[in-house]
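Duplicate of #3305? Posting structure anyway:
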C-alpha cells in the first residue's frame, strides 16, 4: 500500500515522502496515528504541487543550515565535570550539556539533533559530536572535558 508521510517516521522516511508499506501497518498504525495519509491519485497531485512549492523554501533552509555548519566547525567547546583523581567523571556528559554549551555560544540547537561519537563520555579528554542541522547537512564539533 502506498502512503504519503505527514511527518518524519524513524526507519521509514521523512515528511512528504511517498513510501510503500504493508497494508496492516498503514491501516492499523500510520494512518490512525496521523503519521500518514493514503496515496490516492488526487492526494498524489496535491502532494506534487506542495512539493514544488516547498522546494524553494527548503533550499533556503538548507543554505542557512550550511552556513551554521561552517560556523560550528570552528567552535571548540570546553565542558567542566566533577572527576575522581584518576580522571573518571562522576556520571557522564550527555547531549543536554553540549546543547547548553552551544546555547551559551549563541547557537540554539535541540539536544535530539546532537549525537556523541562512541557510547558515553565518562573520562576527561577530547571527543567529537555530530549535529544534524538539516536532513542533508551535518556538522561535527569537537569538545573537551576538563576536571572542575
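Output from current build:
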Amino acid at each position: 500500500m502506498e502512503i504519503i508521510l505527514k511527518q518524519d517516521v524513524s526507519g521509514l522516511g521523512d515528511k512528504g515522502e511517498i513510501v510503500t508499506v504493508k497494508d496492516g501497518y498503514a491501516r492499523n498504525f500510520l494512518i490512525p496515528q496521523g503519521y500518514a495519509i493514503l496515496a490516492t491519485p488526487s492526494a498524489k497531485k496535491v502532494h506534487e504541487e506542495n512539493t514544488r512549492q516547498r522546494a524553494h523554501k527548503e533550499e533556503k533552509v538548507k543554505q542557512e543550515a550550511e552556513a551554521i555548519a561552517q560556523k560550528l566547525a570552528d567552535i571548540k567547546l570546553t565542558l567542566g565535570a566533577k572527576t575522581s583523581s584518576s580522571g573518571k567523571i562522576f556520571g557522564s556528559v550527555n547531549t543536554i550539556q553540549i546543547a547548553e554549551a552551544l546555547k551559551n555560544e549563541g547557537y540554539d540547537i535541540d539536544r535530539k539533533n546532537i549525537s556523541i561519537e562512541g557510547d558515553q563520555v565518562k573520562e576527561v579528554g577530547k571527543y567529537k559530536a555530530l549535529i544534524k542541522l538539516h536532513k542533508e547537512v551535518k556538522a561535527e564539533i569537537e569538545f573537551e572535558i576538563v576536571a572542575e
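Confirmed duplicate; merging threads. The beta strands are 2-5, 18-20, 36-38, 76-81, 88-93, 114-116, 121-123, 125-132, 138-147. The domain at 2-60 is CATH 3.40.5.10 (Ribosomal Protein L9; domain 1).
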